Amino acid sequence: MTGWVARPGRWVVWAIVVFFFVNLAGVVLSVVVDSFGKQWFGTWLPDGFTTHWYADAWREFGLSDVLLATAIVALVVIAVSVAVGVPAAYALARRSFPGKRLVMLLFVLPILIPPITYGIPLATVLYKFHLAGTITGVILANLVPSVPFVVLTMTPFIEQIDPKIEAAARMSGARTISVFTRILGPLLLPGILAASILVLVRTVGMFELTFLTAGPDSTTLVVALYNSVFAAGIRANQSVDAMATIYTASMLVLLLVALRFVNPTQLVTRIREET
Amino acid sequence: MTAVASARPALRHRLAERGIDRTLLLLVPGLLVTACLFLYPFLYGLQLSFAPRRGGVFANYARFFGDPYLRDTIWTTLGIALPATFINVLASIPIAYVMRGRVRGKRLLTTILVVPITLGTVLTAQGLIMYGGPAGWLNKVLTVLGITDEPLPLIHNYTGVLLSLVITGFPFSFLLTLSYLSGIDPSLEKAAATLGANWAQRFRRITLPLLAPGLAITFCLSFVMAFSVFPSAQLVGDPANETRVISIAAYHAAFEEYDYSMGSAVAMLMAVVMLIVIGLVMAWRGTLYRGATGGKG
User: Fold this and answer.
1) Quick check: B236 pLDDT over 80?
2) Which residues on B lie below 8 Å from A237 (Cβ)?
3) Across A133-138, average pLDDT
4) Considering chain B, what percentage of its residues have pLDDT values greater than 90?
5) What residue spans of A114-261 are helical by DSSP H?
6) B155 touches chain A (CB under 8 A)
7) How much is the mean pLDDT over chain A?
């Protein structure tokens, strides 16, 4: 950077970043330290360290059931939203037709409106059809933002694939089905993988929709965690912390896996990375 | 007879010329899911909100605007969501500006900045309560350094919710800003530099105008996240008074009083308020330059 003004500017920026992260580390470490602590009253560190809060949390909150429900919901949501979203993205990427803007608007709105706003009417409808409180209801609710998300991330991805490749395959006598399975499928796989992982992160982290539609058997990890903070009866703060740590650790693993497949900054504008 | 037979392919061809052919059938499942699970419930909720338990068609809305405890939730929500969004978007500009260039460990830094997305509201809330609480590390350090005599009131109030929204929202708006900023060709600024523009002029006259449309989108998406502050307003806020946001009012009506009609009415008002804010931002965006940013693709 030229000019002496740029330097102090840079230092101020870095100072703010460091300040933010020091405090953030404080926030996270407080929880992690407490989840391993025996007793902690007003001192710098707990009296001693133990791992029994994790065992407690696992038992008390029925974590194996909760994790199973979370996995089922996430996998079904991924499968359905990819199966439904990718074909729609293909049609949007390859054709321009009257009313396309309206279709796009319909897919943008569920992402642009906060989940709790459409979650309340949706939960009411699900109650009407006796689906609220079931795992089906939770899956249906989570599909609302996931399907548009897959459509909107896959459309630019498909636009990048040269239509001439498909035309060439057809010229060589490939039928529509083999064009899809032999040509488009392999080319789309990286994009589908990236979209699936992002849907996974979104679904596991989606609080509002699951909270509004889940019953006792269909609670996912986020909602179980929230309920545990409000739970009736005395819950040790440390076992809530232990559970929050488990949640964050698993989300972190998911996100780091996702980052191996997608560069997060390329979600909005696709640019080639400078090497 | 022959006329019908020959009209058919002609119609198909005419439609195909306008882009309507069998490929569009691929849209059907996606549209069906979105219509059944989003559009239908939304319209159902809209209709339900006009069918109150007691009173006329507009009774729910009249009750909402007549009762200050309900009406003020709109201002409370905006009073939390707008500052949080401004902080997140404005703070992400300089940081993204610095991070855009060649920085050592760029990938690691981006990853670290993304990590708070995984925290979740509960861990953030628990952490804030312990770290920022009266006996927490932050107040301890401040007391030891002699900066304050008594602990700062950071949690179970407005500040707590704001902090929680900044922690969870900043990484998101930073990522968006960074990607919009990386889409601007650096050679534009270099060209301005050769014409003698200093960094402030380059930023104000070149980068900011090109970035502004992206910032508008970032603002909208961050605002959507901040607007439904439900969990953090409950956990680190003061949900009965200072941080009684509109989503709490909606939830309370629908699932604690079991008045789905009132709950839907509040949800519709939430959507209206949110769409007004987004509409204003997008109208402003419409006045901006939106051509090529000279990006590399």
Assistant:
1) yes
2) 126
3) 91
4) 22
5) 115-128, 135-159, 163-171, 176-178, 185-205, 208-213, 221-230, 237-261
6) no
7) 82
Total Cβ atoms within 10 A of residue A191: 21
Residue B6 has what pLDDT? 52
| Alpha-carbon gap, residue A239 to A58, rounded angstroms | 9
Q: Which residue of A has its CA nearest to B267?
A: A117
- State both tokens at B74: 């709109």
- Show which of residues 114-133 on chain A sit within 8 Å of chain B, judged by CB atoms: 114-118, 120-125, 127
Of A138, A260, A266, residue with least CA distance to A208: A138
Contact state of A244 with B123 under an 8 Å Cβ cutoff: yes
Q: Do B18 and A98 touch (CB under 8 A)?
A: yes
Task: Give the tens place of pLDDT for each residue, B162-190.
Answer: 999 998 888 888 888 888 887 788 888 88
Collapsed DSSP state (helix, strand, coil) of residue A49: strand
Evaluate if residue A217 carries a pLDDT over 90. Answer: no
- Six-digit token pair at A7? 């330097």
- Identify whether the C-beta of residue B107 lies closer than 8 Å to the C-beta of residue A25: no
CA distance B73 to B81: 12
SS (H, E, C) B94-121: HHHHHHHCCCCCHHHHHHHHHHHHHCHH
Residue A265: its chain B contacts at CB < 8 A? 110, 175, 178-179, 182
- For the segment A150-169, the average pLDDT, to the nearest whole number, is 86
pLDDT at residue B12 greater than cutoff 80 = no
**Residues 6+ away with beta carbon under 8 Å from A26:** B127, B131, B136, B137, B138
Q: What ipTM goes with this model?
A: 0.81
Answer whether B251 touches A (CB < 8 Å): yes
Residue B159 has pLDDT above 60, yes or no: yes
Indicate which of B118, B178, B187 best probes the interface with A, i.e. most A CBs within 10 Å of its own CB. B118
Residues 55-94 of B with CB under 8 A from A: 91, 94
pLDDT score of A90 more than 50: yes
> Which of A115, A201, A270 shows the shortest C-beta gap to B228?
A115
**C-alpha distance from A166 to closest chain B C-alpha (Å):** 14
Helices (H), A37-112: 52-60, 63-94, 100-112
User: How close, in Å, is residue B284 to chain A by CA atoms?
Assistant: 17
Q: What per-residue confidence (pLDDT) applies to A7?
A: 61
Read off the pLDDT band of A187 (50, 70, 90).
confident
pLDDT of residue A233: 54
The chain B residue lying nearest A90, using CA atoms, is B26
Contact (Cβ atoms closer than 8 angstroms) between residue B222 and residue B90: no
User: How high is the mean pLDDT of chain B?
Assistant: 84
Helix-helix angle A6-36:B120-132, to 10 degrees: 90
One-letter amino acid of B101: G
A9 contacts in chain B (CB < 8 Å): 94, 199
